[in-house]
Design a protein that fits this description.
The complex is a heterodimer.
Chain A (H helix, E strand, L loop, with lengths): L10 H5 L2 H6 L10 H5 L1 H5 L4 H19 L24 E7 L2 E8 L2 E7 L12 H5 L1 H4 L9 E2 L2 E2 L2 H18 L2 E6 L5 H13 L3 E5 L6 H11 L4 E4 L6 E5 L10 H9 L4 H5 L5 E6 L4 H5 L2 E4 L5 H13 L10 H16 L4 E5 L4 H14 L6 E7 L6 H12 L3 E7 L3 H4 L3 H9 L3 E4 L13 E2 L10 E6 L2 E5 L12 H8 L6 H13 L7 H7 L1 E3 L14 H15 L4 E5 L13 H4 L8 E2 L4 E3 L1 H6 L7 E6 L2 E9 L7 E5 L23 E3 L2 E3 L1 E3 L1 E5 L6 E2 L14 E3 H6 L8 H4 L16 E6 L8 H9 L7 H5 L8 E10 L2 E3 L2 H4 L8 E8 L8 H5 L5 E3 L5 E3 L9 H4 L7 E2 L35 E2 L5 H13 L12 H5 L5 E5 L6 H6 L4 E2 L11 E4 L1 E3 L5
Helix pairs in contact in A: 9-20, 10-16, 14-15, 14-16, 14-23, 16-23, 17-19
Chain B lengths: L20 H13 L4 H27 L14 H25 L9 H21 L27 H34 L2 H10 L7 H34 L11 H27 L8 H32 L2 H12 L3 H13 L7 H4 L2 H28 L14 H24 L5 H8 L4 H9 L5 H10 L8 H5 L6
The chains are: A alpha/beta, B mainly alpha.
């Protein structure tokens, strides 16, 4: 309804007087003199000086006022419809497992970003090894296949399935064998799916072969005990450990689990109780384990058997022929045997050899020592390495004979890691249909007819059983990112089974694993594992004919004895080469040589001199009819006349980061007595050219400085303060600065030099947590690696009972075999009087009220003065835009791989300084969590990434203001000293003296 | 200045015959008022090529990042700060000559101060480029100044020597520029008065309306004195503050209280050497032999000898204190300089800076132009090595041996250094082309007191005793600008 009401403002309007009409024409009641101002006369008027100043003053004032606004805050808008259980900014943790270790996967907004040990697990539950921490990067690896392939061309899964099934049918019809060649498979699900395939195709067989074979131990145990297994070792129960060439803290079997156990008898808690184990190592190359030994004797690979025979003789009082004639070894063996015999039941001998006879002799010794049971557990045995070299030989023979119709390769890459790749190629040529489950077209997969790329463990359902009775679950934490399918699902499809893999795993667990445990499926998804084994094994006695074993050892040793002997070894970092495309691992320095991005020939400096080699030299290493050229590392501690070369390098088809890094040394191995042997007679001669290795540390001794303080166990027992030499005990210090109160928290750290083995998994954990870029070989050569945390490794060279650490004195040394090593984790010390803070012109690095040295990346303009003035040299500068510069494209320069970045930590641009932040994001996260739960922060709520990765518990972090915190207790230890405390920078990280349990003369 | 008769015992500061005020102006403005000669063009082209190299090297660094240099996690400063300190040090001689010598009424400064001050300004420009170029994020260089900003309460760190440095260098540059420009005003006015057309207009703008009235001259004198007063402390303070970049740190080899005097002496040492390098060429090419005489050359050589000796004593003191301190890090730092991987740099420094200036004890050497010129270059090579030794050998092996590393320069490092020399000479040659290289007005002051012509006249008038005249005659022997005829003229009595 239209309103016909009219409103008027006054009588003038109502009456519409002419005056009103006239005045209402304009917008304003009174006309504005625009015309007057804008006419010629108006424009040409001179602005009076006062008006000008007024206008200027007003303008300036207005602009100033307007500029006083703070920069506006832009709020991010979170999910409009929030997925269940995903809260932006809050990580979710899922229990899973990697290589049989129960782990927790941290995901943020649906993407996995890091992996930590499951603290409640059985076995290894504090810390992870470097490959485990780094494995999260493999999920985002762009070198992986994105689709299944036949003949090198992408196909649909349906097409692949029909091709595979046709081939299987054809093989079955022809009565030919169907073989699955894999590395060790201990997953009940995988084994069940293989069994399912075998039900449909009865000619199916499964062969396990490992790149690094432990067949010698398995066979020796079959002979000695009738159990063809590798035992579990519990070093926590061993007070005396003798290792003959076993890198048992590193790559030998379950190195990280051994570390966790071994350190329990050597760390600050054990020392506090007056206890420390003794570790004696006989080996040729300086391994990480050897670097941690109390006594280390350099022997040749061919002497390993002789040392064990002599040891057996000493322990039992027998006189079996073939004992070692090496004088240094003889002395050590006498003492070691006495120690071992005195500690019966708490003593163990391990040997790294893969020779059946040698391992049989070790079994005999360990039986004498009563090690079976508490230390060596044959009941709850390890299932990590079940490969059989003989079975693989058998497969090659069968295949060559044309009897294999189909061969599947699962986690197996023999063309790269079998010593005779030609043999494998010849055998494969005779197989009708070959397929690999590799996630990339690797050396073997690229030679095969089809590839069915498997999803990574982070995208798959599955399980593992690394130890008898221990079952761990693998849960997916993200949907498959590429068009991949997990192996088990593929096998089920080909077996004609349409069960989804989730159902299959669940049913398999419910039928075969869970009964009797009182747990249900959901419990497992939460806890991640179930253990059905016993806590200790029972006692066993080895049945060994020592005389015949010893004579076989003597005979076989002759085969490798020579003027020069080669020892191939699995490096702690690169392992057997399967992780070669992981840039984090490539840039992780070797624990001993500190070399990154390459393998090398380790040679004693004196021996190198004899060969006419120096730094940056190259050698040709020739063994078993094969030869490779390698750069040289002058390695103190290396036995004269030996050369050590790491396996796992020289991949050619692994991906962008790992291709052509180092040289493949597998071809230098050989088969003796049915097992692959890594030692050989060799020839070494100088090669032409030079090669600069990328080392993160190039000066190897401490020059007599007191930055490392070490004592012996005997001295420690007399006085726990021994050699800790705290400056503050003998000097009064003065302060130029006002003391700032830190009433809330005061974050500090204690590092136990006796616990740190130098493995470096903390470095990788730090890289992953803090988005630290990998810079590549050339930049490491230029000494620009970005690691916030490094492990300094120092040698002390002993000659004729005198210890040398000074460059000039070492130049005159003749014998480089006797060397002691210390590993010192070095990171920002968060000094109370930080020299970096006073010199920064723009206050980009400042101290927090919680005792931390902060770095404000946004404020830094890169004068690098702070780094120069840092006495610990822990600051790292972004020389380039490493994470987004194609010249440093090791892994991160694509949008996909950048998903691995931790969203809690910003990436740093070029020209900015960075350094350890004490995982400030974790501290803040912990504080927030406590606040949400309305409680105080508890000790242990916040763990550093490095600390969480350390299986030796060498890094203890916490609040110094809480006198009951673990770190406060640790820092009250008598062994604590502070590095460079005499320059009064007041570091917040305390180190505990290195204690060596040496033989007292 | 003074109109009294100067003692005959003093050596003449201006030589040559028939020198009038007009002739002085003609002589000095010759290069400004005429087309440049071949020598200038050759020098200029070479210098511009160098400057282009500088542009390319700095441009490449800005484009890719500081990683283009050879620096690493251990050695965070090397050629950049070495070059910076080197250039700042060179600048010091100009200020010393223009300010300190003015206050001390050293008239001989009058003919060299202009070029020396120009050198100061160009050297400080070169130095300032490193301040910006060495930054990781040079586009934020203005953060060094405490500017109001809208980021919150962000301020600079007044504890940091780099902040002091920014103030010191900017103050130094400003004062030097003002001092130099004020001194130029009467000379620019001379050029203006003799020029025509556009040139006249331009010089007229730059002469700031100089009228030449008594009042103008009086104010000119006052301003010069005030600025000299302000500049004098800067001679000491700038390099003191530069030295504090090192002295306030904890790095062995840097953490030294001797640095301020040692750096100042070194700066004057290198600055005079650079003045010598430039002037010896300049006087020859531009025919300034009568204005920049052997007396100047010898005086500067004496200063080089004295400051070189101070520097030498400082080096030895450092060694003694390192030993006496009992600090193993300090001792190692110096043992490492002497016999470590960079020993060659240390011994190059020792030879060039300590031994070579001692040659100036010999009069023959300090009055020999070619040897003086070579030694002046040797001294600057030595001073470059001094900074390199202090910076690189201290950093490359400090506390923790695990981090010890070597520094190897890249082409960019070399390019920026060589390029900065090109930049310097480009500016210097342009200066010679457009502005008088000698302070005309100030030299004119000497004509009626300290010139050979005036002294000869007085001698001929019999104003001095004969034995003094004999002494004077002897002292003229070293002058390359004094002829036999000139000396004989002293025997004539009117």
């Amino acid at each position: 309804m239209d309103s016909n009401k009219k409103y008027w403002k006054g009588l003038e309007e109502l009456n519409q007087t002419p005056a009103f009409i006239e005045s209402n024409k304009g917008e304003f009641a009174e006309p504005i003199p625009v015309e007057d101002v804008l006419n010629e006369a108006g424009l040409s008027t001179r602005t009076p000086r006062r008006d000008f100043l007024k206008a200027l003053g007003f303008g300036l004032g207005a602009v100033t006022l307007a500029a006083c606004n703070r920069t506006p805050i832009h709020k991010a808008v979170p999910y409009v419809i929030k997925p269940e259980e995903v809260t932006p900014g809050i990580p979710n943790f899922y229990a899973s497992s990697f290589n049989g270790q129960s782990v927790l996967v941290r995901t943020r907004e649906g993407r996995p970003i890091s992996i930590e040990a499951n603290p409640n697990a059985i076995g290894l539950n504090q810390g992870t090894d470097a490959p485990t921490v780094a494995s999260v990067l493999d999920l985002y690896d762009m070198s992986k296949l994105q689709n299944p392939q036949i003949g090198g061309k992408d196909v649909e899964w349906a097409k692949l399935d029909s091709t595979v099934i046709a081939s299987l049918d054809k093989a079955a019809a022809a009565g030919k064998q169907i073989t699955i060649v894999s590395n060790t498979v201990n997953s009940p699900t995988t084994l069940a799916t293989i069994a399912r395939l075998a039900t449909k195709y009865p000619t199916t067989s499964h062969i396990q072969v490992d790149a690094i074979s432990y067949g010698g131990i398995i066979e020796a145990n079959r002979n000695s005990f009738g159990k063809a297994v590798i035992p579990s070792y519990h070093f926590a129960n061993a007070q005396v450990v003798v290792s003959v060439a076993a890198d048992f803290l590193g790559s030998w079997l379950a190195g990280e689990e051994h570390t966790q156990d071994y350190i329990k008898n050597r760390d600050y808690k054990s020392l506090k109780n007056g206890k420390m184990s003794r570790h004696i190592q006989f080996e040729s190359g300086l391994s990480m384990t050897g670097s941690n030994a109390d006594v280390r004797i350099a022997i040749k690979p061919s002497e390993e058997g002789a040392v064990l025979i002599a040891l057996y003789n000493e322990i039992t009082g027998q006189t079996i022929a073939g004992g070692t004639t090496n004088a240094k070894a003889q002395t050590a063996i006498k003492l070691a045997a006495k120690e071992l015999a005195n500690a019966k039941g708490a003593a163990v001998v391990v040997a790294g050899s893969n020779d059946i006879n040698t391992q049989a002799l070790v079994n005999a010794i360990n039986t004498q020592l009563g090690a079976y049971g508490a230390i060596i557990d044959l009941d709850n045995y390890s299932k990590q390495y079940q490969g059989s070299d003989a079975a693989f030989q058998q497969f090659l023979a069968t295949a060559k004979a044309g009897q294999v119709g189909v061969a599947f390769f699962l986690n197996s890459n023999p063309i790269y890691d079998y010593f005779n790749a030609g043999d494998v190629k010849a055998a494969l040529a005779k197989v009708d249909f070959t397929l690999s489950f590799a996630d990339r077209a690797d050396e073997t997969a690229s030679e095969l007819k089809a590839i069915a790329p498997a999803s990574t463990f982070l995208e798959s359902w599955g399980d593992a059983s690394s130890k008898e009775g221990l079952f761990t679950i693998v849960q997916p934490t993200i949907n498959p990112v590429f068009n991949t399918r997990q192996v088990e699902q593929s096998l089920l499809v080909w077996a004609g089974d349409t069960t989804s893999i989730y159902d299959f795993v669940k049913l398999n667990w419910e039928a075969n694993i869970l009964p009797g445990t009182g747990k249900v499926w959901k419990d497992i998804l939460q806890s991640g594992f179930v253990y059905k084994g016993s806590s200790t094994g029972s006692s066993y006695s080895a049945n060994v004919d020592v005389n015949s074993v010893a004579s076989a050892i003597v005979n076989d040793s002759k085969k490798i004895a020579g003027a020069v002997e080669l020892k191939l070894y699995e490096s702690t970092v690169m392992r057997d080469g399967r992780y070669a495309n992981n840039a984090y691992l490539q840039e992780l320095p070797d624990p001993v040589s500190k070399v990154t991005w390459d393998n090398y020939a380790a040679i004693n400096p004196k021996f190198a001199e004899e060969l006419g080699l120096g730094e940056n030299g190259k050698v040709t290493v020739e063994a078993n009819g094969q030869s490779i050229d390698l750069p040289v590392v002058l390695q103190p501690g290396q036995t004269m006349g030996t050369v050590s070369v790491a396996l796992g390098y020289g991949r050619t088809k692994v991906g962008k980061a790992g291709n052509e890094v180092g040289k493949n040394a597998f071809p230098l191995a050989s088969l003796i007595n049915g097992t692959v042997q890594l030692a050989a007679q060799a020839k070494v001669f100088k090669a032409v050219g030079t090669y600069e290795l990328a080392q993160t540390q190039t000066h190897h001794t401490i020059e007599g400085r007191n930055i490392i303080r070490e004592t012996t166990f005997a001295k420690y027992l007399k006085d726990p303060n021994s050699e800790s030499g705290r400056f503050a005990d003998s000097h009064k210090t003065y302060d130029l600065w006002n003391k700032f109160e830190q009433p809330g928290h005061k974050w500090v750290m204690a590092i136990d030099l006796n616990a740190c083995t130098g493995c470096g998994s903390c470095i990788v954990a730090c890289n992953v947590e803090n988005n630290i870029p990998v810079v590549g070989r050339d930049e490491v050569r230029r000494r620009r690696e970005m690691h916030w945390l490094r492990i300094d490794r120092y040698y002390t060279i002993e000659e004729n009972g005198t210890k040398f650490t000074k460059e000039k004195e070492i130049a005159d040394i003749q014998d480089f075999e006797n060397v002691t090593v210390v590993h010192q984790p070095m990171l920002c010390q968060h000094c109370e009087h930080a020299p970096c803070e006073t010199v920064c012109p723009v206050l980009a690095t400042v101290h927090s009220s919680e005792g931390l040295n902060h770095m404000a990346y946004n404020r830094c303009f890169g004068t690098r003065y702070c780094a120069n003035n840092c006495p610990y040299k822990v600051r790292r500068f972004n020389w380039f835009n490493y994470w987004n510069d194609s010249r440093f494209d090791n892994y991160l320069n694509n949008e996909f791989t950048q998903l691995v970045l931790n969203p809690d930590v910003t990436t740093r641009s070029r020209g900015v300084m960075e350094k350890c932040s004490m995982c400030i994001q974790r501290i803040q996260g912990g504080k927030l969590q406590a606040k949400i739960e309305n409680r105080k922060l508890k000790d242990g709520d916040v763990k550093m990434a490095c600390q969480a990765a350390c299986s030796a518990n060498a890094i203890i972090f916490g609040d110094a203001n809480d006198p009951e915190s673990e770190v406060s207790k640790a820092l009250r230890n008598e062994r604590v000293y502070y590095v460079l405390e005499e320059i009064n920078v007041q570091p917040n990280i305390g180190y505990m003296t290195k204690v060596r349990n040496t033989f007292e003369a | 200045m003074s109109s009294h008769n100067e003692s005959i015992l003093r050596e003449p500061l201006v030589t040559g015959k028939n020198i009038t005020y007009a002739k002085v102006t003609d002589d000095i403005l010759l290069p400004v008022e005429n087309k440049p000669n071949k020598a200038w063009w050759i020098g200029f082209i070479v210098a511009v090529c160098g400057a282009m190299l500088w542009v390319v090297s700095v441009g490449y660094t800005f484009w890719t990042g500081i990683g283009a240099w050879g620096l690493n996690k251990t050695v965070g400063w090397a050629w950049d700060i070495t070059d910076f300190v080197w250039w700042v040090g060179i600048g010091h001689a100009g200020t010393l000559i223009s300010a300190v010598l003015l206050l001390f009424r050293q008239n001989w400064r009058n003919s060299i101060n202009r070029s020396a001050e120009a050198m100061t300004i160009f050297a400080v420009i070169c130095a300032a480029t490193y301040v910006v170029a060495h930054m990781g994020r040079p586009w934020l260089a203005y953060w060094i100044f405490p500017l109001p900003n809208q980021f919150g309460s962000l301020w600079v760190n007044f504890n940091s020597p780099l902040v002091w440095d920014a103030f010191a260098i900017s103050t130094y540059f400003t004062v030097s520029l003002v001092f130099w420009y004020c001194g130029l005003l009467p000379d620019i006015a001379s050029v203006r008065d003799r020029a025509t057309g556009l040139k006249r207009k331009i010089y007229s703008i730059f002469s700031f309306g100089w009228s030449g009235s008594v009042k103008t001259w009086q104010r000119f004198e006052i301003v010069s004195l005030i600025l000299a007063g302000i500049s004098t402390p800067l001679v000491l303070s700038v390099h003191t503050i530069v030295s504090m970049d090192f002295a306030t740190s904890v790095i062995p080899g840097w953490h030294t209280t001797i640095f301020p005097p040692y750096f100042v002496a070194g700066a004057i040492f290198s600055g005079f050497a650079m003045v010598q390098t430039l002037l010896l060429i300049l006087r020859k090419v531009l025919n300034f032999e009568n204005y920049i005489t052997m007396f100047h050359i010898e005086s500067m050589n004496k200063i080089i000898m004295v400051t070189g000796s101070i520097v030498g004593v400082a080096y030895l003191t450092e060694l003694f204190i390192a030993w006496y301190s009992g600090s193993e890090y300090e001792q190692y730092a110096f043992a490492n300089r002497i016999a470590g991987p960079y020993a060659w740099a240390y011994w190059a420094m020792m030879t060039c800076n300590v031994i070579s200036p001692q040659l100036f004890w010999f009069k023959k050497i300090r009055t020999s132009i070619p040897i003086s010129w070579i030694l002046s270059i040797v001294v600057n090579i030595g001073m470059w090595f001094e900074r390199f030794v202090i910076i690189v050998t201290s950093l490359h092996r400090d506390y923790l041996p695990s981090s010890w590393a070597m520094f190897y320069p890249t082409w960019t490092d070399v390019g920026i250094f060589v390029g900065s020399i090109g930049l310097f000479f480009t500016l210097f040659l342009l200066f010679l082309r457009f502005l008088p290289g000698i302070a005309i007005a100030e030299v004119k002051l000497l004509l009626k007191s300290s010139s050979l012509q005036q002294k000869t006249k007085l001698v001929q008038e019999g104003a001095f005793p004969d034995e003094q005249v004999e002494f004077f005659k002897k002292s003229l022997g070293k002058y390359d600008s004094v002829t036999e005829e000139d000396i004989k003229a002293l025997d004539v009595r009117n």
